[in-house]
Amino acid sequence: MITTTGLTKVYESRGRQVTALDGVDLHVREGEVFGVIGQSGAGKSSLIRCVNLLERPTSGTVTVDGVDLTALAGRGRRAGKDLRRARSSIGMVFQHFNLLSSRTVEDNIELPLEILGVSGAERSRRALELLDLVGLADKAKAYPGQLSGGQKQRVGIARALAGNPKVLLSDEATSALDPETTRSILQLLRDLNRQLGLTVLLITHEMDVVKTICDSAALMRKGRIVESGTVSELLATPGSELAAELFPVTGDATGPDRTVVDVTFHGEAATQPVISQLSRTYNVDISILGAAMDTVGGRQIGRMRIELPGRYEENVVPVGFLREQGLQVEIVEADATVPAQAAQSPVLAKEGAK
Ligand SMILES: Nc1ncnc2c1ncn2[C@@H]1O[C@H](COP(=O)(O)OP(=O)(O)OP(=O)(O)O)[C@@H](O)[C@H]1O
Question: Which residues contact 197 (CB under 8 A, 6 or more apart)?
Fold first, then answer.
């Protein structure tokens, strides 16, 4: 639904060049919630603003729903019209809501429809329908100043949906909200994603946002995407920074001659009693050193760091059993005498290369 290739943005600032985006290749599938996370200055805002051409990329292409927006932006006056039309299939939600304080809630939502030339009666019908969708049917005649932060963001979301977009871009939509309101706005975005089949691209600096609603995520650093994939793919990637931050597990071996293993559960495997089966089948005592279980996008997912007695070579069979159950298994610490090749199993290497 959204593809960027080699997207680059260089700002000129007081005679100095700042590279905010440095060749970003992004792929957002239709119907998914995709989160881009990164620290301040990583280039997240530049990315989202380039995706709807609010900011003109220095080079590279942006395609949304099959339309190359960068090509439209490049051609004369007619291009402006085509770009505006293409943009109406992209809604945008802002951190500080960007509502007009002198207009009622209903009139704020009608604004993009006015620009599109929709008739008064149709605008009003659509605005009231959207207010109902975001749970604010009784606030049509209120002014933004009379609303809470969460309600203002609901209006911002309704306005973003006015043109019936296929894509919603969210620029830190919950950063100005308290935790409870954040949860309700994220839930609303999730519901809209499911009900309307809306593709959502959001940027955030909060891992909790990614954990709560994202199907896929990318980590940005210094204008580049350094990791990207579905949450399951990330969890299955050994050494993934995003996976480690989504599901941090720690814990040291309790003594020498121990095998420490990080086990990642997702999908069906998450509900199977694999640890007790392992213990019973191989008659081994298993210690749990650390664990993080959670629900991501409605699916149970988690990580556990366990310890088995004995060196890695004595545990090849039980570790193989875990893999056979469909679990992602990573050897954290094998006895120093075990060659690296043995500790890094071929299965893991293969899975890592996917
Ligand atoms: N209009 C501009 N002119 C010059 N430099 C800019 C401009 N906008 C952004 N930058 C620079 O580009 C880099 C990336 O900024 P950007 O706002 O995209 O990052 P960000 O990840 O969204 O950060 P934040 O979370 O703080 O908003 C930064 O070094 C920033 O100073």
Answer: 30, 31, 166
